[in-house]
Write a sequence for this structure.
């Protein structure tokens, strides 16, 4: 296979091995630049905040908690404290069990800065509406939730 060229391309998501012939060289080059540009310009804040918003819409405490810092400032209605990741997940799970989710509408997302991002929205449950906010911080090269709040709309 003289006309084949083997390239090993490394990107953040892993190693991609591409085999291509001379006539597919242009496609391979475009593919490489597509992967390169997506990894350079991808915003990790957006990925994490989107995952958290999707988990809130599902009422999935486990998916939200996977993005918690080891210690988290958590306020769920009248319960407010600094909890471990596991404790915070249980408190959140209890809230979702008592307040079935109808919808969540994100109303504000701060501009992603180098070390934090703030998201606010309205959570509609079968028994009321709540203001939800969470703070993402860059901790050890990861973006984690350091503060999570669910408050009545009147607070």
């Amino acid at each position: 296979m003289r006309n084949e060229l083997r390239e090993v391309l490394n990107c953040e998501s892993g190693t991609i091995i591409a085999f291509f012939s001379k006539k597919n060289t242009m496609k391979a080059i475009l593919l490489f630049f597509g992967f390169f540009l997506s990894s350079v310009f991808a915003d990790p804040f957006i990925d994490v905040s989107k995952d958290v918003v999707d988990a809130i819409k599902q009422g999935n405490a486990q998916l939200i908690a996977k993005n918690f810092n080891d210690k988290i400032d958590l306020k769920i209605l009248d319960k407010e404290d600094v909890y471990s990741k596991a404790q915070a997940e249980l408190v959140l799970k209890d809230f979702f069990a008592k307040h079935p989710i109808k919808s969540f509408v994100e109303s504000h997302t701060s501009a992603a800065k180098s070390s934090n991002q703030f998201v606010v929205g309205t959570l509609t449950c079968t028994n009321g509406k709540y203001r939800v906010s969470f703070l993402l911080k860059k901790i050890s090269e990861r973006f984690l939730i350091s503060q999570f709040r669910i408050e009545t709309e009147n607070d």
Summary: The radius of gyration is 21 Å.
